[in-house]
C-alpha cells in the first residue's frame, strides 16, 4: 500500500489592518510632558522636602535614537493624548455586537482572504495568536470564525510578541498532520490598552494593528513554502504583565502600573539578541539553509538597534538597505504582528526559489523562526 504524501505547509496569503489614528513622537511627548508638569506642580511641596522625586520629561529625540520609532498607529488617539486620561478610550460594546479585537482581526483576515485564490471552505481552523485577548472567553478566534462564516474549530493562544510564529508553527503542524486543508492565523494587537502612557521609560514603545496569515498544503505558484519552523522559550521576568482575573482576589487591590506592561529594557536587549541570533543560525544549519544567502529578514519589530545587531549576526555582514525590513518607524512595536507586517509589506520582489526568514521574539522569553522559500 502506498503511503499518502505528507502535505508541505505553505504561507498562501497575508493581510493587514491599520488602525485609523497615528501619533507622532512629538505629539506623544507633548502630552507626556504636560502630565509631568502638572504632576510636579501639584506635588511641589512633597518634591521640595524630598518625600517624592520629581518626574522627568520625555524627549522625541531620545525615543527615535533609542528605539527607531517615529510614530505609531492606535485605535484611539484622543484619550492617549489627553494628559488627564492617557489611555485609549474604547467604549465597551454589547455582547450582540462584534468585539473590537475580533473586528480588527476580521479586517486583516478579509484582506488575506481577498489575496488568496483558495476556497474559504478549506479553512478548518482559526488561531487567534496575540499578546492580550480582550476577554478570557469565549475565544476571540471563535468570534472571528463565526463572523467569517468558517467551519472547523478555533482557539486563542498567547505567547506575547512571539504569538504569530507560534501560531504559524501550530498551523503548519496541522497541515502536515492532515488535520485540515487550511488554517487562518490572526494577530490583533491593541497594545495601547496595556501600555502605561505615564511611564517615561516605555510610553513610546507600542502601537496597535492586526495581521492575518493563511497556511495551506497546496504548493501553488506565488505562495511561500515553509522550509522549517522552530520555537524556543526561556523563563524571564524582564518583560512582564501581571494583569489577570486573580487581581480582584488580592487584598491589596489592582495597584497601578505593575498591572500594565513593565520591562527591564536594557536586560532584554542584552539577553535576547544573542539568544535569537544563535537560534536562527542553529535552525538554518539544521535544515541546510545558508543564512548569508537569505534575500530578506522579516524580524520582530521592537527596537531598530536590536534588529541591526541580529541582522549583522545572521547575514554575516552589514545588511544592505531593505534586506532587514524595518517597519517599526511608523508602526512602533506591535507585538506579535510586527514580523508579519514586515513580511506582508516587503516581499513583492521575490523570484521563485529565493528565501527569507520570519522571526519573532519577546516576553517569556520566547522566540520563533520560520524559514520560507518563494514558489
Ligand atoms: N525620554 C528621555 N530620556 C529617557 C526616556 C525618555 N522617554 N526614557 C529613558 N530616558 C533616559 C534614562 O533616564 C537614561 O538616562 P541616564 O543615562 O541619565 O540614566 C537614558 O535615557 C537611557 O535609558 P535606558 O537605558 O532605559 O534606554 P535604552 O537605551 O536601553 O533604550 C529601550 C530603552 C528603547 C526600551 C531599549 O532598552 C529597548 O528597546 N530594549 C528592548 C526592549 C524590547 O525588545 N522589549 C520587548 C518588549 S515586547 C514583548 O515581548 C512584550 C509583549 C507584550 C506586549 C505588551 C503591549 C503593551
Automatic annotation (TrEMBL):
Residues 287-373 form the Beta-ketoacyl-[acyl-carrier-protein] synthase III C-terminal domain. One of its GO terms (biological process) is secondary metabolite biosynthetic process. Transmembrane segments: none annotated. It comes from the Bacteria. InterPro entries: ACP_syn_III_C (IPR013747), ACP_syn_III_N (IPR013751), Thiolase-like (IPR016039). The keyword Ion transport does not apply. Residues 155-233 form the Beta-ketoacyl-[acyl-carrier-protein] synthase III N-terminal domain. SUPFAM superfamilies: Thiolase-like. One of its GO terms (molecular function) is 3-oxoacyl-[acyl-carrier-protein] synthase activity. Pfam families: ACP_syn_III, ACP_syn_III_C. Keywords: Acyltransferase, Transferase. Gene3D superfamilies: 3.40.47.10. This is 3-oxoacyl-(Acyl carrier protein) synthase III. It comes from Hyphomicrobium denitrificans 1NES1.
Amino acid at each position: 500500500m502506498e503511503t499518502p504524501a505528507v502535505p508541505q505547509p505553505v504561507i498562501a496569503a497575508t493581510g493587514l489592518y491599520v488602525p485609523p489614528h497615528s501619533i507622532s513622537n512629538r505629539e506623544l511627548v507633548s502630552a507626556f510632558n504636560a502630565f509631568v508638569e502638572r504632576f510636579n506642580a501639584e506635588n511641589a511641596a512633597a518634591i521640595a522636602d524630598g518625600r517624592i522625586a520629581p518626574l522627568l520629561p520625555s524627549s522625541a529625540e531620545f525615543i527615535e535614537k533609542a528605539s527607531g520609532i517615529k510614530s505609531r498607529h492606535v485605535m484611539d488617539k484622543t484619550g492617549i493624548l489627553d494628559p488627564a486620561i492617557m489611555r485609549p478610550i474604547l467604549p465597551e460594546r454589547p455582547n450582540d455586537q462584534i468585539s473590537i479585537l475580533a473586528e480588527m482581526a476580521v479586517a486583516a483576515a478579509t484582506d488575506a482572504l481577498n489575496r488568496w485564490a483558495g476556497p474559504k471552505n478549506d479553512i478548518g481552523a482559526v488561531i487567534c495568536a496575540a499578546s492580550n485577548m480582550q476577554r478570557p472567553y469565549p475565544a476571540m478566534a471563535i468570534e472571528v470564525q463565526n463572523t467569517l462564516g468558517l467551519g472547523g474549530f478555533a482557539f486563542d493562544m498567547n505567547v506575547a510578541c512571539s504569538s504569530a510564529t507560534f501560531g504559524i508553527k501550530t498551523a503548519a503542524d496541522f497541515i502536515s498532520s492532515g488535520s485540515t486543508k487550511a488554517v487562518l492565523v490572526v494577530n490583533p494587537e491593541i497594545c495601547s490598552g496595556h501600555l502605561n502612557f505615564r511611564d517615561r521609560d516605555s510610553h513610546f514603545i507600542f502601537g496597535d494593528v492586526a495581521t492575518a496569515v493563511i497556511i495551506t498544503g497546496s504548493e501553488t505558484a506565488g505562495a511561500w513554502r515553509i522550509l522549517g519552523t522552530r520555537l524556543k522559550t526561556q523563563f524571564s521576568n524582564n518583560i512582564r504583565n501581571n494583569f489577570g482575573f486573580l487581581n480582584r482576589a488580592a487584598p491589596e487591590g489592582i495597584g497601578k502600573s505593575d498591572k500594565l506592561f513593565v520591562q527591564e529594557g536594557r536586560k532584554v536587549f542584552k539577553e535576547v539578541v544573542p539568544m535569537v541570533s544563535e537560534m536562527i543560525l542553529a535552525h538554518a544549519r539544521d535544515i541546510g539553509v545558508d543564512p548569508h544567502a537569505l534575500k530578506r529578514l522579516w524580524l520582530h519589530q521592537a527596537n531598530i538597534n536590536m534588529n541591526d545587531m541580529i541582522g549583522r549576526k545572521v547575514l554575516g555582514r552589514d545588511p544592505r538597505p531593505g534586506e532587514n525590513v524595518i517597519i517599526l518607524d511608523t508602526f512602533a512595536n506591535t507585538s506579535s504582528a510586527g514580523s508579519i507586517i514586515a513580511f506582508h509589506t516587503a516581499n513583492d520582489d521575490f523570484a521563485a526559489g529565493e528565501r527569507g526568514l520570519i522571526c519573532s521574539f519577546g516576553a517569556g522569553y520566547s522566540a520563533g523562526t520560520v524559514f520560507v522559500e518563494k514558489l
